[in-house]
Specification:
heterodimer, A: mainly alpha, 10 helices, 70% helix, B: mainly alpha, 76% helix, 0% strand
């Protein structure tokens, strides 16, 4: 199943795991990519050579040149500027969709695992049903119901990742719950809510956070995919998926329109995968190398 | 084992009911009035009331759901608003295109991925291994709709080696038997037609195979390396067996079960990827049908397609699970 991430059931992330993970070249490259990506979302207005919406029909479909480094699209808009502004949509998608899935899925998993019984059964049946759909199909159904738009496509991606977080978090909670320190907290009379939030949650969180890092890239790909299909960001907004759809229309004559936004998606995904992989390896003693 | 199968089948029914509920609820969240959508803005109030009654929209929601279930069980999802065909018929016409694409990709991914995984495991730590692992990391990070476009630009637009899209050259379509262009071409016995069918399938199948190929390579490598540490492998070596024989007969056989499972589980990924691949290569498959139906608000087809794909996906996962239990009897034990 796509998108499922293999994360070991492990105790909380030691403080230095992050730093150890960063000893690897791959992780450093990944972090560098992520940093540049974040920087561009903020600095877009100063870095982009043109306004991403500015049409200049005299340079329509002009190939990469000194004037337009990444060429121009069918309306003469600067592809480089549109790619740079596209980082913003991508970041919104990561924060909203991945964040939504993490919080809703994480909470569901936490409560299900902690409460057990009927609550657990109900939540896990819902998770099973949602996981029964191929992930993009579920996104398509949700977009069909809500109507095609960037907001709805991001929401749809958030929903399709929710069950995976719920499942992972529940597994973590079940593993942590039997630990001595949880029994100790209970036996000194800590209220269940306090045990759940202060003792179980912090110790179940790190694999879930690693998953969030790994999913960040996937979220970018899938939001772009929905936009590419015409179900997400609508023209003229500078979205990588929508840019690729433009590139698809002109692939016989203007290769640059599709090439550069796709390269941007690829690099961002690669960056998050490199960081996520390194973190996962640090958490999983069987995989630890350094 | 029998008990396990019964248990899994019961779960299947529950999951399918849940799936039907999700699809039903999604279609009822739709903004606007379905009757108005069907009849258009100029419909009289009287006609709207009659159509609502005819569609059962004036009934309570749970009655509507039960009716939807009963009709779905008979394969009745209403008629397509675009083609006026029965919605399920449109889905069944498009399905073989997706099936052919998916199977071809799975074949490419397994036939290349498994040997590549074994080689990287045997030669782990060498430059070959590092290069391949980097390539597979690129493979899983690649948005396939971009990769497909790049292949299209290079091989179709620039080099002109392959067609830019479609299933067959115009005017050369084989008579429809299975709906799969390659199978139908083979049935005609015409070599030129067979060649065209394969030629048209190459690029889309390779595009869709990218991510599963990378994943299968990685899993095979990991499993082979794990299986190589087992005692019986050491014994086999101690007996003086050749390295090739040790790997093929003793290591690979133990690594086979997880590898087969992973290959089976690629189906969800492939079905999702097929939507994008079909769009890039203008293939009239199920994914493309779904997207077009959503864009043109052809909800009977969306509903039929969604339930069909979900049911198929659940069934395949069940078959994968059962075959897993069959290969490794420990799984079915309570």
């Amino acid at each position: 199943m796509s998108g499922t991430v293999e994360v070991a059931v492990a105790p909380s992330m030691p403080e230095h795991a992050l730093w150890r993970a960063l000893r690897r070249t791959g992780a450093r490259i990944g972090l560098l990519i992520a940093a540049v990506f974040l920087l561009l979302t903020v600095a877009a207005p100063w870095v982009a050579p043109y306004d991403p919406y500015d049409q200049d029909l005299s340079s329509a479909l002009s190939p990469p040149s000194a004037e337009h480094l990444f060429g121009a699209d069918q309306y003469g808009r600067d592809v480089l500027s549109r790619v740079i502004y596209g980082t913003r949509t991508a970041l919104i998608a990561i924060v909203v969709a991945d964040g939504l899935a993490l919080m809703v899925g994480g909470s569901l998993g936490l409560v299900a695992g902690f409460a057990g019984g009927a609550v657990d059964t109900a939540v896990m049946r819902l998770v099973d049903v949602l996981l029964a759909f191929p992930y993009l199909l579920l996104a398509l159904i949700i977009v069909a119901a809500l109507g095609p738009s960037l907001t709805n496509s991001i929401l749809a991606i958030g929903i399709i990742y929710t069950p995976q977080y719920a499942r992972l978090m529940r597994g973590q909670v079940l593993a942590v719950q039997g630990a001595d320190f949880v029994w100790a907290a209970r036996s000194v009379g800590a209220a269940p809510l306090r045990v759940m939030l202060r003792h179980v949650l912090p110790n179940s969180l790190s694999p879930v956070l690693v998953m969030a890092t790994l999913q960040a890239g996937a979220v970018v790909v899938e939001t772009a995919g929905l936009s590419f299909l015409g179900l997400g960001a609508q023209p003229p907004s500078p979205d990588w998926g929508a840019l690729l759809a433009d590139g698809h229309s002109y692939f016989l004559t203007a290769w640059w329109i599709a090439t550069f936004p796709g390269l941007a998606i690829f690099l961002v995904v690669l960056g998050f995968n490199l960081v996520g992989d390194a973190l996962r390896d640090q958490l999983d003693p069987r995989r630890r190398t350094g | 084992m029998a008990q396990y199968i019964v248990q899994r089948l019961l779960q299947l029914v529950i999951v399918l009911l849940g799936v039907s509920m999700v699809v039903f609820v999604a279609m009822h969240l739709l903004p606007g009035d379905v009757a108005l959508l069907l009849l258009g803005d100029h419909a009289t109030a009287d006609a709207l009331v009659r159509l609502r009654a005819q569609l059962g929209l004036d009934q309570p929601v749970w009655v509507q759901y039960l009716r939807f279930l009963a009709e779905a069980a008979h394969g009745d999802f209403g008629t397509s608003l675009q083609t006026n065909h029965a919605a399920l018929d449109d889905v069944l016409v498009a399905f073989p295109v997706t099936l052919q694409l998916t199977l071809a990709s799975l074949a490419i991914a397994s036939c290349v991925g498994v040997p590549l995984g074994v080689l990287t495991a045997v030669w782990n730590g060498t430059r070959f291994d590092t290069a391949m692992m980097t390539l597979t990391l690129f493979g899983v990070s690649m948005p396939i709709f971009w990769f497909g476009l790049m292949l299209l630009i290079l091989f179709a637009a620039v080099l002109g080696w392959v067609p830019t899209g479609g299933l067959m050259p115009v005017g050369m379509e084989p008579p429809r038997v299975t709906g799969m262009s390659v199978v139908d071409s083979v049935l005609t016995g015409d070599p030129a037609m067979m060649w065209q069918a394969v030629h048209y399938l190459l690029l889309p199948a390779f595009t869709l195979a990218t991510i599963p190929l990378a994943l299968i390579t990685r899993i095979t490598r990991a499993e082979v390396m794990a299986a190589a540490g087992f005692d019986h492998v050491r014994t086999a070596r101690a007996k003086g067996l050749g390295e090739r024989r040790v790997v093929l007969r003793h290591v690979l056989r133990n690594a086979a079960i997880p590898i087969v499972t992973v290959i089976g589980l690629q189906l969800g990924l492939l079905l999702s990827g097929a939507v994008l691949t079909e769009t890039i290569f203008s293939l009239p498959g199920l994914g493309r049908l779904m997207v077009d139906s959503i864009l043109s608000r052809d909800y009977p087809v969306v509903q039929a397609g969604a339930l069909f794909i979900a049911a198929l996906f659940v069934l395949v996962n069940l078959v994968v699970d059962l075959s897993y239990a069959f290969l490794d009897p420990r799984i079915a034990r309570p």
